Amino acid sequence: MKQYCILFFIIVTHLTLAQKNTDFRIHSHNDYYQSVPFWKGVSAGASSVEVDVFLIGDSLYVAHSKQEIVAARTFEKLYLEPMQKLAELGLQRPENLQLLIDIKSEAYTTLDAIVKNLKKYPELIHNQAFTFVISGNRPKPIEYNNYPDFILFDYQGLEAVKSQDIRDKIAMVSLSFRNFSGWNGKGRLTAVDLEKVATAIQKAKSLGKPFRFWGTPDSKTAWNALLRLGVDFINTDQPFDCAQYLNSLMTREHTNTVFSEVYRPTFASDGKRKKAKNIILLIGDGNGLAQISATALANKGELSLTQLRNIGFLKTQSSDDFTTDSAGGATAIATGKKVPNRAIGVDADGNSLKNITEILADKGFISGIVTNDGITGATPASFYAHQKDRGMTQEIKNDLLKSNLSFFVSSASNLEQKKRIGHFNIVDSLRKFAATEKQKLAYFLSQEEASSELPIAVSTVLNYLEQKDAPFFLMVEGAKIDSYGHANDIGGVIKEGITFDQVISKVLRFADEDKNTLVIITADHETGGLALPQGNVLNNEIEGDFTTDDHTGIMVPIFAYGPSSTIFRGVYENSELLKKMLCSLGFLE
């Protein structure tokens, strides 16, 4: 029976933890050890700073032990004078700044000296923006009311305080974390320790005062756990790191509510040793392994993408940099050559490199591009254009008009009001796109709805291609995964990842019905240096932690499905992908 009670408690606790606590304060523990005491904690946004004091003679010194006392480091100089300056200058500070004074010497004489010191600063003791709380060696609770109104106390117990007068003198409740758990802040609290800690917090908070643990592990995992458990003051020796982590936590946690229905492939044609007739290449811009993991875990643990069996990794370095951009990455895929960053379909000397749509045009293929980016974006442009810099938009547009593409679908353009762009006929609806008999087609997705329209657009294009007798090459880009990676927006990354998987579902279904289409899914690079420190698969919750707002040099996964898909396994350069695609079509050995 006890085991069932513990299990029930843990389930209830986890449901409680799912409620994000935003009403937290940071306590700069042992603040006097900071390189710049007081100012560092306050500038980090700490609402509470802790100072240990010793009374030696008539002076109050700041130190953790008598052996550490330095004559110049007095209570007044390190804390009261800076607080006075803070008040005088009217500098930005927490709404209420608490000074937790931990008495290390004899309680009564030291507290008398503290009161005497504080009375020298009437601007502080009569200012509601400052609170002075006595911790460490303290008088007995029954004696709390013997001290001035500006002196409050840190209550360190769980016993109920019956006297209202005494309760009014208590500013907070503090307990040693080590009395309940030996957790080191890595991994998770054990079930038994979680029960002990949560029960202690519940009892402490029933006293109606803010609560703090001291002696807690000092890590992101611990800060997160304490926050979710409802601890009011998060104890830390790293106020800047703690503040940055906790203050950004709401933006780095995402609960998914829109899902990709998982398509389970038949595998009837997968891995068959026969030539593919068609290729559909899907590029998730910036979509690294962490982005795929985040999307899968937020999508009830799986995706259509994660059903696939033939998997490899691409090395993405450009010819001139450890970290590629989209132009260098996509050009390597499209042309089979490593090129400098920003180059679109040209080598380092500006010489044009033949891309896959041009190679296949000579063999009677229809080629097209679908993207929720602009058609002149670096990734799509790498499959038709030849310019030294991705910023040469007009020149890239001119290359589009001369390209071998049979059609394209992209987000809104300033050209969309026209009926034609060169030889491309612009249609104003996807229905007309599927029904038209014209050979050169363009359709523009709305700027605001480009991502949500992408799966529909891909379905329309696949229906269009199904009516053709010729083999085809189709490149589909999920461009906005990259945009949200740059913005360090985990919710956006997952949202776009879900949309991209909806596209993948449609493409896999088409490949199963067609049986002659090879599907390749990869990325040009990873964006954001994303890590996934925590989450909850049952609740579709993910915490994302980004290390950069730029691209990274990490390898990206490649998935393949259909005829000849096994040749895409392994670890290789992104520039090898063109040769493998041509091999799958029977044009190379």
Automatic annotation (TrEMBL):
Cofactor binding summary note: Binds 1 Mg(2+) ion. Binds 2 Zn(2+) ions.
Matches recorded under InterPro entries: AIM6_PI-PLC-like_dom, Alkaline_phosphatase, Alkaline_phosphatase_core_sf, PLC-like_Pdiesterase_TIM-brl
CDD domains reported for this sequence: ALP, PI-PLCc_GDPD_SF_unchar3
Superkingdom: Bacteria
One function term, GO molecular function aspect: phosphoric diester hydrolase activity
Requisite cofactors: Mg(2+); Zn(2+)
Keywords per UniProt: Magnesium, Metal-binding, Phosphoprotein, Zinc
Binding site for Mg(2+): 285, 379, 477
SMART domains the record matches: alkPPc
Active site residues of this protein: 326 (phosphoserine intermediate)
Residues where Zn(2+) binds: 285, 482, 486, 524-525
Gene Ontology biological process terms in this record: lipid metabolic process
Family: Belongs to the alkaline phosphatase family.
PANTHER family (alphabetical): ALKALINE PHOSPHATASE (PTHR11596)
Name listed for the protein in its UniProt record: Alkaline phosphatase
Organism name: Croceitalea dokdonensis DOKDO 023
